[in-house]
Specification:
By secondary structure, this protein is α/β, with parallel strands linked by helices. A hairpin with a 5-residue loop joins strand 21 and strand 22. Helix 13 runs parallel beside helix 14. The longest helix is centred in the C-terminal third of the chain and has 24 residues. It is globular and about 70 Å long. The N terminus and C terminus are likely disordered.
């Protein structure tokens, strides 16, 4: 089992570390010939605490005047792993880099800074990052002035930072999810200090508005809240992202209005649990349904959101979504398991029956709604009967697609302490059966669209054929069809001709765009 063979404790043997100095700014230590400046370091104990500290909203310039030409003549790369939240964090970091004068490059040999923006949700994501760090070692040896950094959710884990300090001393910079706005200062310190700089805040900081973002394409991510208070037993996110903090509605609305003015065609509202939005407000009664109602009045063609927790999906939100307009008919509703007993062990705080009742309400209120989900197989103690409960729930709901995962333990979570007694070969066999069922349901759903005309937001050319355009429907289905490149960024009406399992082939119904204003 992964949690039996992976012993992170060995990375915390700092018997050979020498403390050089220590003051209120941090401590300098030397490990294996490398000096390390630790401003702050992650702590599972502190990350588990949910204090009542007031969260301030700050509107300040993230790039000091003296650093706005710091990157002139320099190039950067950010390699992003994980979820849309990480993608959004990368957009912010790109904005910070470019406000400092850096330019993006796709060639790592040209790069002066390489950042790995990491994910901590699954073990294989962590393995990929450490594999990539190993690959980058030779480049760092060839180009010692290269700044190599690790940021994101993995950096919030004690075990990961300990492993980097001990085994990857050529890394120059480590920071987490709560202090991305500090990137300009940390880069300066890494450049001029010639030592590894570590600054990971265990406690979430304030909400920083006005951070620059570099977006690409016609679809934009908009963060509406940070953190999660659910503490599902398998999930590291409440520790890596901190407690729930909602952005003020006036700030979210202003950002979406500006995106509409700039011509963006679709926005996705982001949060670890978007429908907990507003629960932390003490000065107003304003929740996610209120925000969606206000955003629906803005002249932007499509608004969607991810991800939502079934327990917080209330009747008011269903009523607002049922109004349609620019609020699309696609809801990602992670279920994780179809067994009430496993859901209890996961601490999901709803039952199989209450989830199915929620689905019935949504389908009754929103005709043609498409539901997608997340499912974990092989959770500790899962029996064959409990897995079959998941299979029957998937059939009953009729999900159009699902992200499916084999359970893997994350150090620091309660589930990592449970007996992981489902053999790997059983987990793999269950995953195959589940994926076969999801594929069958996806094909059936797509087949129902044969001959129908759907609206597609054209995102770009197909990677395999430059004559074929690809885009997505309001229900987030991927569509391929032939058309000219000038259609990219606009809405086109197409007729479905050949539904496949995971995408749809179609043809334009007329030779001009059906743009939505």
């Amino acid at each position: 089992m992964a949690n039996e063979t992976k012993d992170y404790s060995r990375y915390f043997d700092f018997s050979d570390a020498k403390i050089i100095s220590e003051d209120e700014h941090g401590k300098r230590i030397r490990i294996g010939g490398r000096e390390i400046f630790i401003m702050s370091e992650p702590s599972y104990r502190r990350e588990k605490q949910r204090g009542k500290e007031e969260i301030k909203v700050l509107y300040e310039e993230a790039v000091p005047e003296e650093l706005r030409t710091f990157g002139k003549g320099k190039k950067y790369i950010i390699q992003t792993y994980g979820c849309q939240m990480n993608e959004h964090d990368t957009e912010v970091m790109k904005g910070l880099f470019e406000h400092m004068g850096f330019e993006w490059t796709d060639d790592r040999r040209e790069a002066d800074v390489i950042l790995l923006n990491t994910c901590a949700v699954r073990e294989n994501a962590e393995d990929k990052v450490f594999g990539e760090l190993g690959n980058l070692k030779s480049l760092k040896l060839e180009k010692p002035e290269l700044i190599l950094g690790v940021c994101g959710c993995m950096s919030q884990e004690e075990s990961v930072v300990g492993r980097i300090l001990q085994k990857h001393a050529y890394v120059d910079l480590v920071f987490g999810t709560h202090n991305i706005h500090r990137l300009p200062i940390l880069l300066r310190d890494a450049y001029f200090g010639k030592e590894m700089v570590v600054e990971v805040w265990s406690k979430e900081g304030d909400i920083i508005e006005n951070l620059p973002k570099k977006r690409e394409g016609m679809r934009a991510w908009v963060n509406i809240m940070y953190g999660c208070d659910k503490f599902c037993t398998y999930c590291i996110v409440p520790y890596t992202r901190g407690k729930e903090r909602s952005r003020l509605p006036e700030d979210v609305i202003a950002e979406v209005r500006e995106l509409a003015r700039q011509g963006y065609r679709e926005i996705t509202l982001l949060g670890q649990n978007v429908n907990a939005y507003g629960k932390d407000f003490t000065d107003r009664d304003y929740r996610f349904a209120d925000l969606m109602a206000d955003l629906s009045k803005i002249d932007i063609p499509r608004i969607r959101f991810t991800t939502s927790h079934p327990r917080d999906f209330d009747d008011k939100l269903i009523e607002v979504l049922s109004r349609g307009g620019n609020l699309v008919e696609h809801i990602h509703l992670p279920v994780q398991s179809g067994s009430t007993e496993i859901l209890k062990r996961m601490s999901r705080k709803y039952t199989r029956e209450s989830y199915l009742e929620l689905v019935r309400k949504i389908k009754a209120a929103i005709p043609g709604v498409v539901l997608t989900t997340d499912i974990i197989v092989g959770f500790p103690g899962e029996t064959e009967e409990q897995f079959e409960e998941t299979m029957s729930l998937v059939r009953e709901v009729g999900f159009d697609s699902a992200y499916t995962f084999i359970y893997s333990p994350r150090a620091g979570t309660p589930a990592a302490e449970m007996e992981d007694n489902v053999p790997m070969e059983v987990k793999k066999e269950r995953l195959i059966r589940l994926n076969d069922l999801v594929a069958e349901l996806s094909k059936r759903s797509n087949e129902a669209l044969r001959g129908r005309v759907v609206e597609v937001l054209v995102e770009g050319r197909s990677k395999s054929n430059p004559n074929v355009l690809s885009g997505r429907t309001r229900t987030n289905k991927l569509v391929h069809f032939e058309g000219p490149p000038e259609w990219i960024g606009s809405f086109v009406h197409v007729r479905v001709t050949d539904p496949q399992t995971w995408y749809i082939k179609a043809e334009p119904v007329r030779q001009e765009t059906g743009a939505v204003s």
